[in-house]
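Contributing new complexes? Match this layout with zinc ion.
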Amino acid sequence: MLRSMIFAGMALGLAGCAGAGEQADRAGAAEAQTVAAADAGGTVRHIGNAGLMIVQGETKILFDPLYSNGYNNYHLVPADVKRAVISGAAPYDAIDAVLISHAHGDHFDAADLIAFHAGNPDALIIAPVQAIEAMEATGEVPESMAARFVPMGLDYGQDPLKVAFEGLQVEAVRIPHAGGPSRRALENLVYRVTLAEAATVIHMGDADPALEHFEPYAEHWSARETDAAFPPYWFFLGAEGVEIIDETLNARAATGVHVPVREPAELAATGRAYFGVPGEVRELAGE
Ligand SMILES: [Zn+2]
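Output block (do not edit by hand):
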């Protein structure tokens, strides 16, 4: 019951029915907090929607940082932040890798990624095949960029795909996008990434919050403890989603992302941590 309500809300968001005036009111009411980062510990910076920068030691990565569509429902990356990410300006300099969860307009923009490569020529671009094909389809991908692509081709039920670079271990499984069977053709990846052999995070894209998708990977989740998971907020709104986050994933802490501008009252009522207005910085779970 609750799940179908959540999906109805998402469909509404994608259809762009949220009122702009209401959004502005809610955005003003929510206040971004900035927590000073400990020198030794890792940090997560919320860029917008499911966009995050994770920093641990010398390793710095971005998840879903460049997208152009809020579907009248989700925060866009602030314009000055977007410029800084694309040009590689501090604090978004020396990015080791960008990871894309899936090729939807509120997570990914092919032209923005091509511009990003120009400003960040060394950064790896780790992405589902569909996102890489979308970039290549523009005809604007230089050879230097194609050489940085790390395609994560995965089918449902396939063993986790693992790739490793200096200071960066990336594992991914394909989990269906929320919204039902019509989304099955979409490659949505749930990443588990270990930075500098010191911090492990999970980013889930728009994963569907059903246990049946996650339980077959029990061995995968138990093999490594995660310091901080960043599920889309709808995981907090139903019993199965909560069980996945609190039990199945083997994660010590979780912070919700992909929160609508008009923050759902039922989300606040859960008491769970989440990112709302872009710009917040938190320490990775240190408890
Ligand atoms: Zn999506």
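Reviewers usually confirm one structural detail per submission. For this one: The first strand starts at residue 43 and ends at 48.
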